[in-house]
Design a protein that fits this description.
CATH superfamily: 2,3-Dihydroxybiphenyl 1,2-Dioxygenase, domain 1
Radius of gyration: 15 Å
Number of domains: 1
Number of helices: 2
CATH class: Alpha Beta
Strand content: 35-45%
Number of strands: 8
Helix content: 10-25%
Length: 130
Amino acid sequence: MINRVGTVSIYVSDQQRAKAFYTEKLGFELLTEAPLYPGASSLWIAVAPKGAQTHVILYLPDENWEHYKGVVGKSQAVTLDVTDMQGVAADLKAKGVQFASEPDVQPWGTYATIIDSEGNKILLVESRSG
């Protein structure tokens, strides 16, 4: 089942400057600041208004995400929060939904990418509980 919009990524060129803006200027809470993956130089920085369920990720595009450097300062991506990624993936596939990437387990959770009817890639994320 899809529960809610989990995160919205805003691609930035300076994560610390962006964090200061969102927390100091907009009053968002800093929810997470951790390496994106073991050994990464970029961070997973999540901020949100107090009590919000949807988090804003201040994402620094790296060599794996070069194509997002062109969207800094423009409209950004949406992530859908899910439970039971394997069940959701099976259900969506049964409905003919195309996957750009299969569910992939990472230290922070599991993600997969689907393609909508317009060719947009939508990220599904099941956060690791606990």
